[in-house]
Amino acid sequence: MAESNYLQVRCVDNTLQRDLLSLGRTYEVTRVLDRDGYFELGALGRFSCSRFEIVTAEHPEGDGTMTADRHFVRPGQR
Predict the structure, then answer these.
(1) Class of residue 21 by CB neighbours under 10 A (exposed 0-12, middle 13-18, buried 19+)
(2) Strands (E), 1-78
(3) What is the pLDDT of residues 41-65, one digit of tens each?
(4) How do the domains of the chain map onto residue ranges?
(5) pTM of the predicted model, to two decimals?
C-alpha cells in the first residue's frame, strides 16, 4: 500500500464501467495499490490504473510532484 498523496486522475476508458465512471471526468484517488496496478477512488471502488491519466499529483508536504509512473520526484531531482 502506498503512502497517502494528493492525486487526481482523469478517466480515459470507461468500458464496462459506464454506470460508475464518466469519460473525461476527474476523480480523486484515495489510495494507490501499486502491486496490483489499481487506483482506489473512495466509495466507487478499485479500478485499473490504465483507465486513467494523471492530472494532478503532489507530495503531501508539497515539495515534489508525481511522474507518470507514479513515483515522486523532488524539485531538481530526476
Answers:
(1) buried
(2) 6-11, 26-28, 31-33, 38-40, 46-48, 52-58, 65-66, 72-73
(3) 989 999 999 999 998 866 555 555 5
(4) 6-73
(5) 0.66
